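haha ok so turns out i had the wrong file open the whole time. this is the CORRECT one, sorry everyone. sequence first:
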Amino acid sequence: MATVRFTRNIQRHVECPDREVEGATLREVLERYFAGNDRARGYVLDDQGRLRHHMAVFIDGQQLQDRDGLSDAVAPGAVIDVVQALSGG
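then structure:
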């Protein structure tokens, strides 16, 4: 199983506690994480299931490559960090 973590910044807007989830790809892991939590899903993914532009995902510290298909491999024991991109001056 992989551990899915969301920054406090995201948790201020939507409930998404750390959880361990099974899946071989990021898509599988996130779909299982978001099952029953449509609000969190809608905050992170768009209507086509792609990662929203203001979000970033790291798998074991490496930024995800496939923002549209979410096909990046997830090894057992991986840590997935979901963060909100910040901008400003």
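The radius of gyration is 12 Å.
again sry for the mixup
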